[in-house]
Amino acid sequence: MALRQCEKRLWLEVHHPELRDDSEQAECRFQVGHRVGEMARDLFDPEHKGILIDVEKEGFSAAFALSAALLQHNQPVFEAGLCGGGALAFADVMLPSVDSGKLSWRMIEVKSSTSVKEYHRDDIAVQAYVATVNGIPLESVSLAHIDSSWTYPGGGDYCGLLKVNVLTEEALSRHEEVQAWIKRANAVVENPQEPSVAIGAHCDAPFECGFYPYCSRDEPKPEFPIYWLPRFPSAKIRELAESGIDDLRDVPDEMLNARQRLVKTHTLENRTYFDASGAAADLAGYPLPAYFLDFETIQFPVPIWAGTRPYQQIPFQFSLHVVTAEGLLEHSEFLDLSGGDPSLPFADELIRLCGENDHPVFVYNAAFERSRISELAQRFPEKSSHLLAINERIVDLLPVARQRYYHPSQHGSWSIKAVLPAVVPELKYQDLEGVRDGGMAMEAFLEALHPQTSTDAKECIRKQLLAYCQLDTYAMVRLWQVFSGHPELAL
User: Fold this and answer.
1) What is the per-residue pLDDT for 218?
2) pTM of the entire structure?
3) Phi, psi angles (nearest 5°) of residue 140
4) Which residue, 335, 348, 345, 483, is CA-closest to 402?
5) Residues contacting 64, CB < 8 A, separation 6+
């Protein structure tokens, strides 16, 4: 599978694995995969009669020998080690099937994604080939993935979490193709010289490669990278790179739309763009009082709360700033670290604090908050009218920022974390302790819920989460103040 992404990656995996430096996102993906794998074993072997092969404990040779022995018997085997035909593989799930006294196997590869990907098909083709070379009779070859439309009923009942796709015919028909991959892989590995492969789109497909920092260490770093251009197609970036262009200064203006040209011009001239009158006009229709709202959410590939779906964004915290009609600033907040489903108390407190009125509720990137509120309204019909009324009041500050403001330090991004330090330099997320972005907020929330987290540590996490979310809404207040033209307000 490494070969399928990049020959250089394969060579490094074998000869210099110590150079691999996986990102936090990759590590998180590995953890998710482990959790889904554990759940798959419970689902496919509810009576727990199967055997799990632990290659780290057994070692490769022992794992292969033990797997071969177990696959002669009528019981499920998990992580069965298969070696043959010049390749090795570990099958997530092997389920026995006996017909007229003959033993065959249902091979199932388990993925934490929500659909079948092309590289999954390559993966099971390799596994099916190695199993066939070992003489293992395969009744079927399948790929199981998360069904994101399934709702957890509670009580530990996870039937329906995984959707099984039978791909037997396809997997078994690719033996010659797999043989060619294996032949090429062995040639790459046996070469004493590291392959010369330039960095490119393959470095992130299907996943970011852990060797990217190593491979890119000597790459020239342009002063003004092309990827700073907002929504500039990756295909065009590759096209320009192939012609030796990797700096904004050399990108022809005719290739750019109006916003991209604005970014290029103001970046190269180190000059701020601010259409103050346009921003003020955009916001003139929303008089005080004004509300400023931000959510923090958590998602689980395997849901832990009844009524929720895999990977559903569950809000557990919000911050609400209010600029009153008199120009005073008030703040309220909600955070649930009890370990129970925070959805209902979240909805109740949101309704209470936002009130029954038509005052604007400012957010930054409205699609996120609107979607979460709509999901809460669907889950709790008795509160639907109140929640959807809040949705009707939402006003998005992101389009105002995107249309009316740009500072070279944003590097083509209008995320609030890029815009805030440009507009209000004295406010910096880097000054926060512990939690400085949404990913860190998720990690902190999970740590707070862990049963082994001490009371003192949990209280520290609470303070960090509250401070982070509060800065998100205070940042919006200050952006609104600048964009709407209210410097006289002491906010």
Assistant:
1) 80
2) 0.89
3) -160, 160
4) 483
5) 81, 82, 83, 88
